């Protein structure tokens, strides 16, 4: 094809999809990356972090970024790697659990679908634990654990559908009782919950927690697809260090092969720039906007299944498909909650009060039709 035809086709596609988040992307857990992260991404996107001989300094950036993120979840000796998003992190975490001898996967219906997908791919045994108010019920876990034996218990810090946090401490106590380990899926909530609930032990402060998912591409302001797998220590991480004969270093880390330096450098840069204080300020601001939206929604006579603990608002409605499509026609894009009938707004950094007001007034209109 000629260059001008290629450019015109690309422009046509760009016009046909919503490319500006601020215009009305309200359901997705993605947000525009910070310009600093974009610049770092561009500098290193063509280099392979997994070639450790050539790019060892990039792997060092990766380890520093993972350590910093791990420290937010109470870890002090964490290692891990920058993945292609939360799904890969969850897959890698369950793989580690399996390699260390844990074959049962305890999870709830509110866990992200990447958990059951990973259990399926790894031929592990999924065991569904009951919930109480959309959070894992430790009593149900105890009896299932007694009946089925040890496993990896997956808790979620910020459920995708309703924004709840599983009781990580109580679940960890039960896990310890039945010789199990815990994986914390904090893909979204990992950059909110530790700052908004500083007295709760949501991660590695609990002995059985061996790994966590925390996605820089969600609230970290890093570009897609930067995900984070954080592992308690080198020993637990070992099965993810694979032999790779033709590489000069003779090995590579992670589930996949060639890994772009872009997400790694971008994550390091933005994590160092924002730091604990920057992410804490963002977390408080997002929760403030979340409460604002909750109020507005209740003002329309609508209900949420539960008060969310992270910036995810599920608005119950039997006609969720109709609502989602009617709003999309007006340029406001939400998702369905999934777990319960309803539509879901994720209050990401680009979701300002003005955007929430636009959403609420459109929702009012659609509901009155
Ligand atoms: N875990 C949780 C709790 C999530 O909310 C998500 C995505 O929304 C994921 C995992 C999967 O992340 P990704 O879409 O980056 O693979």
Automatic annotation (TrEMBL):
Task: Give one GO molecular function term.
Answer: aspartate 1-decarboxylase activity
Which cofactors does this gene product need? Answer: pyridoxal 5'-phosphate
Name positions with the PTM N6-(pyridoxal phosphate)lysine.
Answer: 218
| Xref: SUPFAM superfamilies | PLP-dependent transferases
* Record Gene3D superfamilies: Aspartate Aminotransferase, domain 1, Type I PLP-dependent aspartate aminotransferase-like (Major domain)
From the UniProt record, give one GO term of the biological process aspect. coenzyme A biosynthetic process
Report what the protein is called. Answer: L-tyrosine decarboxylase
């Amino acid at each position: 094809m000629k260059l001008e035809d290629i450019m015109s086709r690309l422009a046509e596609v760009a016009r046909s999809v919503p490319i500006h988040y601020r215009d009305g992307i309200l359901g997705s857990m993605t947000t525009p990356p910070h310009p600093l992260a974009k610049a770092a991404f561009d500098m290193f996107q063509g280099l392979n972090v997994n070639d450790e001989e050539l790019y060892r300094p990039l792997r060092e950036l990766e380890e520093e970024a993972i350590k910093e993120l791990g420290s937010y979840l109470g870890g002090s000796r964490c290692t891990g790697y920058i993945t292609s998003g939360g799904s890969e992190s969850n897959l890698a975490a369950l793989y580690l659990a399996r390699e260390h001898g844990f074959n049962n996967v305890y999870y709830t219906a509110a866990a992200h679908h990447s958990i059951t997908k990973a259990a399926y791919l790894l031929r592990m045994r999924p065991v569904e634990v009951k919930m109480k108010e959309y959070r894992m019920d430790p009593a149900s876990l105890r009896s299932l654990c007694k009946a089925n034996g040890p496993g990896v218990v997956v808790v979620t810090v910020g459920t995708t559908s309703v924004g709840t946090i599983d009781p990580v401490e109580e679940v960890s106590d039960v896990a310890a009782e039945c010789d199990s380990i815990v994986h914390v899926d904090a893909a979204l909530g990992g950059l909110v919950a530790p700052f908004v609930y500083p007295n709760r032990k949501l991660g590695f402060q609990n002995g059985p927690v061996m790994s966590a998912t925390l996605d820089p591409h969600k609230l970290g302001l890093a570009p897609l697809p930067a995900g984070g797998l954080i592992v308690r220590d080198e020993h637990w991480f070992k099965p993810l260090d694979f032999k790779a004969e033709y590489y000069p270093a003779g090995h590579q880390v992670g589930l996949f092969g060639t890994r772009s330096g872009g997400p790694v450098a971008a994550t390091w840069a933005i994590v160092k720039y924002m730091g604990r204080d920057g992410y804490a300020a963002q977390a408080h601001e997002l929760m403030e906007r979340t409460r604002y939206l909750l109020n507005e929604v209740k003002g329309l006579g609508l209900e949420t299944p539960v008060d969310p603990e992270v910036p995810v608002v599920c608005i119950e409605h039997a006609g969720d498909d109709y609502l989602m499509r009617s709003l999309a026609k007006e340029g406001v894009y939400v998702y369905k909650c999934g777990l319960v009938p309803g539509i879901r707004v994720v209050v990401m950094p680009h979701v300002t009060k003005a955007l929430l007001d636009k959403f609420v007034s459109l929702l009012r209109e659609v509901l009155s039709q």
